[in-house]
Here is the input.
Amino acid sequence: MPGAIPGTMPRAMRQILRTPMTVIGLVLVLVHVAVALCAPWIIPYGPSQLAGMPFEPPGDRFMLGTDVLGRDYLSRLLMGGRITLTVALVGVLIAIVAGAFLGLCAAWFGGLTDEVIMRLVDTKVAIPSILLVGVLIPGFGQSVGVLIFVIALVYVAGVIRTVRAQALTIKPQSFVAASVLRGESSLSIMLREFLPNVADLLCVEFAIRMSSAILLVSSLSFLGLGISPPTPDWGLMVSEGVGYIHTDPWLVIYPSIALCTLVVGLNLATEGVANALGLDAARGMVKG
Amino acid sequence: MLLETTDLRIGYLDGARNMKLAVDGVSLALDSGQTLGIAGESGCGKSTLARALMAYTRPGSRIVGGQVRIGGQNILDLPEPGRRAIRGRKIAMVPQNPLSSLTFHMTIGAQIDEILRQHEGLSKAAARARSIALLEATAMPDPAAVHGRYPHELSGGQRQRVVIAAALACQPDILVLDEPTTALDKTTELKVLKLVSDLRDRFGTALIYISHDLNVIARVCERICIMRDGKMVEAGPTRATFAAPREAYTRMLLRAVPRTTDPSPVRPPTAHPAPGGPGAHPVLQVENLSYHYAAGGLALPFFPRRKGVLAVRDLSFSIRAGRTLGLVGESGSGKSTVAAVISGLLPPGGGTLRFCGTPLRAAASRRSTDLRRRIQMVFQDPLSSLNPRLSVGRILMRPLRIFFGMNPIDARAEAGRLLERFEMPVAMLDRFPRQLSGGQQQRVALARAFAARPDLIVCDEVTSALDVSVQDHVLDLLLSLQAETGTACLFISHDLGVIKRVSDDVIVLQSGEVRDAGPTDAVFATPRHAYTRLLLEAAGSVIEPIPGHAPVSPASQGTNRGDLHA
Here is the structure.
């Protein structure tokens, strides 16, 4: 049984605070979330407002300079994480909820249900994510809704596999037999007996998939498949600035740093928290 | 002196980073050809001590003081290569679980050959010849064939023989056996114990035998040490110690061992006898029960069907209210299948089951709620029968809410009363299963079953994971609850002593067939079948009754037995 003994949260808390990398990770994530939430009230100019001349270097009026159209780069940078974060968050949440449900169904019902769900998962895993996205987005049109759907689809397979594997170790235990003998319904058994035992796994799964999803959304925006201009977005900003990398490098550097700190922060925080809870997070980090 | 420890102390860091002593100042001595038993309940430090005799500790713990001298030399002073040279040659160990201590992807032969080639520098052919001879010495049937087999192809007893052969490979002076027969059936255990004694006589090896089972130690060892909380509380010659124990703890341990010579179940008198009185009407009648595990698999290409197995054949019995039927058998005898069919975990097979007159025709999910309430089951492993993520309160409240529709406040109050009835504080409602001891966990599991106010309770090996003193307490509670509520009980166990303590009647099962049946007293006194006699011999207590100690006080015995058998 993975997972810490319930009721020992204070010890996990102490261990988190003792590991500096975890604290750094948590601070980075918190700062990014706070900025994303408060951005509309703290930005000096509108994100799409043509406030100055194009390519103004960082200075007094524009702290981080202006972009190719003369928009304030600081304002765009502060606003640039909001859509990515939202899309990744909603997409991954859908993947977690659907994946938990399908994974528990596969483990609990077994037999044909298990075969159907798992063979579909195998099929999904056999198709490279970027190919799947490359077909789905031009096919369904480029919108936030489609993007969320695509993110959920990309991550749901992994969640199903992880949850099913964990649930299979719970299934033979006597407390499940006891609930069957009480006459509990399948849904009740899955929610009452299985879910609490996979909950911490789901939290770690969520955090790992989040950092991966943020990178995926940004890559799509960079490729022109994700968020469309003029919405400010880090991936999009990198792609707009990449042509001027020799003359005005800050156009690429600042959004890259923003993206980088968020993803690294998420990874550090996830690993630290997972270790403190006694979960094996390293497994999913490779692709992250 | 061949082996001597002086003031050995082994410490580990606990959760709060404090040094705790697992073994605290143990001194013992052993000469060649001698046998020493180390007994104690789980967590007393006996396995830690065994490892330390080979200068090894588990990760996280270390030897903090004292000496371990083999042939006069303190092996704790040796560097790691020196220690390695001693292990296997001077002192060897037979670990607890024979399956997990054999490497599953290597053949038996390869694993023993490896030891001989490493330590003795034998050639491949010479090593092979020696390991076959070793297997032969452990009375292994067809040793040359076993040499080429994999661990999973052998039975539990055979695996234990292999581990013993491997430990004897370099003819060590001292053999440490750590609970070598705990995972085995009683009849197999008897064979392994005999083998160990024979080997000692043949090779003159000194033995240290570690076990929680005083009976086993009494069979093999001349001297015994009793350990408690890392300290040695009593030591001396086995017979003398058992005949006249000095320490109260030793007396308590001896008293707690269930014996096949114990009197039949003694249920405490109650102020409110169960309605109808015990033995009034049959609660469960089983006629010609047979169960055949169906062939499995999807019968599609790449999903071959598995073969079916006949688990139980033609079993008939009945249990009356307030009485207990014991079902005895070794692993694979089909006793758990019977429990599963009656409780409804498995659909009924052949034959008829009647519960209070109404036939049981369906698995639990298709029975009525009231029927599910009236048949409750308690499982073997207490930890796995409680959801680790739910508090004790939520675990106990669930049956109350389902079966009696109680609101959360009433259910919690009732759960608190149940806990108190099972002699645990109400504050435990907010604890989680892993914060409880094994005995407490099993009492919570019993409380959950009795919460439903059942007419029949099916107990599947409920005490086999517990220490004897804890087992004693749990069995007492079960008997007193039964007297109070008039619940009938189907009690399944491999331990004849436990069966004798709780059951009025007994059925002996072997390979799904009934070997012996009848009142427990009669069956144990005059067993009809050879298998029953074999089981009784294996379970027979070699501990002499303690003088001046009657297992049950005469007064209560008289009244209760009179009531029950009137």
